[in-house]
Design a protein that fits this description.
24% helix, 22% strand, 4 strands, alpha+beta
């Protein structure tokens, strides 16, 4: 699975960072960025939860 963040729609609420800090961080603009694009086996649920919790649906997952 691959993860991408749409910085145009991200509002920087930080829920993704709280739920999956190994995969997301906030950049200098306060927007989320994916630290890793490839999700490691066993981390899929954590990253899916972060994507589903995004209030602007800015996190896209590619199976």
């Amino acid at each position: 699975m691959k993860v991408h963040v749409d910085k145009e729609t991200c509002i920087g609420c930080g829920v993704c960072v709280a739920l999956a800090p190994d995969y997301f961080k906030l950049d200098s603009d306060g927007k989320s960025v994916a630290i890793k694009e490839e999700v490691a086996p066993g981390d899929e649920e954590k990253v899916r939860n972060a994507a589903m919790s995004c209030p602007t649906q800015s996190i896209k997952l590619e199976e």
